[in-house]
């Protein structure tokens, strides 16, 4: 998903919401995401392969950083009451049009995914997020907010760029050279279709310990290999065969 020029962040982080407003049309035109099954990232399997979410019939499912709401639409098609949150008006406008076209109801909220005040405590059966947490600096805050809205024992399932992938530059002629320390948490500025974004870096232990501190039990970690070993999406890079591109985690709320 991250392509183009990459650099270490030396100044102010980019306004990612404005960047997504500008990028939305090109992203949606290129991605052509499915609406019958939840996806986790480019060139890997889907929920049909990983089976991390369980039976969704009658469940209240909250999707964070829902973008065009393709996953929320898939949840609704599987019988869930689907709620999506995103801070990009353009992504949400696309989502509304797609819901209309597919004749599916998804409750869409405009706002930051770390602001879940509009959701009642312990009212959600599953929180899901695909490739949005990489834009979030303070994941601990998100984990605490999600903990409040989840019913006890219910899962938070999310995918994000694998932190090992941040060590390389996938637009380089020599992509497998290590360009950055795994331990460097400096945000990464990059351009995608000429639009500036900022990503935040979270090592696996940062994420795992953040979840433990927020009172979750991690019960699944998936580092998917490329599906079929070859390209499926516009994002495909040969590097995907050598370095995990996507990290998927399922964590269950413990305590109250
Ligand atoms: C790579 S897109 C993924 C969208 C969707 N999950 C999908 O798989 O197509 C990232 C999405 O997260 C949203 N996003 C990023 N940071 C966010 C934040 N802090 N609050 C709300 N939405 C956010 C962006 O607007 C964008 O729609």
What do you see in this structure?
The chain has helices at residues 16-31, 47-50, 70-77, 89-102, 139-149, 204-213; strands at residues 6-8, 60-64, 81-86, 106-110, 126-130, 155-161, 188-192, 195-199, 216-222, 246-253. It has six helices and ten strands, in the order βααβαβαββαβββαββ. Helix content is 25%, strand content 22%. It is globular and about 50 Å long. The strands form two sheets. It has a seven-stranded mixed β-sheet, sandwiched between helices. It has a single domain (15-161, 209-253), classed as Vaccinia Virus protein VP39 (Rossmann fold, 3-Layer(aba) Sandwich). It is of the alpha/beta class and 256 residues long. The structure holds S-adenosylmethionine. S-adenosylmethionine (SAM) binds at residues 1, 16, 20, 33, 65-68, 70, 85-88, 91, 112-113, 130-132, 135-136.
Helix and strand content put the structural class at alpha/beta
Spans of at least 5 consecutive residues whose pLDDT stays below 50 are none
List cofactors, ions and other ligands: S-adenosylmethionine
Secondary structure: number of strands: 10
Tell me the radius of gyration. 17 Å
Total individual domains:
1
How would you name the CATH homologous superfamily?
Answer: Vaccinia Virus protein VP39
CATH topology: Rossmann fold
Would you list the SSEs in sequence order as H and E?
EHHEHEHEEHEEEHEE
Please tell me what the overall shape is.
globular
Provide the β-strand percentage band: 15-25%
Strand order of the largest sheet: 4-3-2-5-6-10-9
Main sheet? 7 strands, mixed
| Quaternary structure | single chain
The first-level CATH class name: Alpha Beta
Distance between the termini: 36 Å
CATH structural architecture:
3-Layer(aba) Sandwich
Per DSSP, the total helix count is 6
Query: Average pLDDT across residues?
Result: 93
Helix content: 10-25%
């Amino acid at each position: 998903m991250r392509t183009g020029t990459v650099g270490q962040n030396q100044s102010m982080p980019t306004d990612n919401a404005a960047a997504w407003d500008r990028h939305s049309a090109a992203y949606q035109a290129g991605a052509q995401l499915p609406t019958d099954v939840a996806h986790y990232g480019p060139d890997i399997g889907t929920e049909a392969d990983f089976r991390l979410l369980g039976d969704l019939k009658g469940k209240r499912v909250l999707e964070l950083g829902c973008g065009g709401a393709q996953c929320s639409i898939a949840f609704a098609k599987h019988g869930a009451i689907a709620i999506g949150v995103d801070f990009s008006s353009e992504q949400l406008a696309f989502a509304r049009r797609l819901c209309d076209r597919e004749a599916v109801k998804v409750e869409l909220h405009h706002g930051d995914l770390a602001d879940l005040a509009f959701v009642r405590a312990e009212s959600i059966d599953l929180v899901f997020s695909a490739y949005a947490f990489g834009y979030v600096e303070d994941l601990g805050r998100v984990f605490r907010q999600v903990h409040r809205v989840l019913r006890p024992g219910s899962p938070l399932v999310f995918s994000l760029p694998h932190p090992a992938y941040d060590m390389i530059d996938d637009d380089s002629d020599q992509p497998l050279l290590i360009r950055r320390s795994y331990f460097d948490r400096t945000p990464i500025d990059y351009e995608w279709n000429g639009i500036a974004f900022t990503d935040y870096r979270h090592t696996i232990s940062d994420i795992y310990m953040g979840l433990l501190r927020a009172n979750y039990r991690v019960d699944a970690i998936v580092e998917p290999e490329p599906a079929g070993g070859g390209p499926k999406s516009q994002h495909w890079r040969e590097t995907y065969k050598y370095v995990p591109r996507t990290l998927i985690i399922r964590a269950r709320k413990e305590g109250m």
